[in-house]
Amino acid sequence: MIFYDSWLAKLILFGDYHTIMLFGGIFTKKKALSSPVIQHEKTHQIQFLEVMEVFQALFILADAILFIVGVPETTLVLMLVLTILVPPLMYYVVYGVEWLVSIIHWFFSKKKKDIVEANGKAYRNSAMEMEARFNERVKDYLLKRRPFAFIKYYGLI
Asked: pLDDT tens digits for 77-133?
């Protein structure tokens, strides 16, 4: 779902940034979006779901193992709560860890230490951003896209 003229987007986005995908929703300051921007953000939606599903499956597997092993009921309840709360956050954890590694790389790879430039390069060189940006104008990309397509962009700079 796209939330146009969003108060949330106006609150959290700065500079030239006008649209963001948060927890599967697309929030924008604008009243309309171009097709490439929509496709870009929908690519992020799919990435979000893929990462969330992997971690959801891992948590469910851990829940099953803990149940079979016979841990106390309070531990099982805590794990079930974590199974619900943690997986939706993992897209942002994966994205954030990649950004952190990249910003450190870009900051220390230059003689002139410029954190703003390093941040811009880290953002643009994120695997998830590269997939979305490189394919935002590819006709029917979302229909042809393979699962976890963003993985092939890791390590590219």
From this structure: 999 999 999 999 999 999 999 999 999 988 888 777 889 888 888 888 899 999 999
- Extract the tokens encoding 7: 């108060």
> Is the pLDDT confidence value at 63 over 90?
yes
Strand partners, 21: 26
DSSP of the chain, one letter per residue?
Answer: -EETT-HHHHHH--TT--EEEETTEEEESSS---HHHHHHHHHHHHHHHHHHHHHHHHHHHHHHHHHHHT--HHHHHHHHHHHHHSHHHHHHHHHHHHHHHHHHHHHHTSSS--HHHHHHHHHHT-HHHHHHHHHTTSTTHHHHPPTTGGGGGTT--
What's the whole-model pTM score?
Answer: 0.90
For residue 52 the two structure tokens come to: 């969330």
Tokens of 156: 């590219």
What was the pLDDT predicted at 157?
64
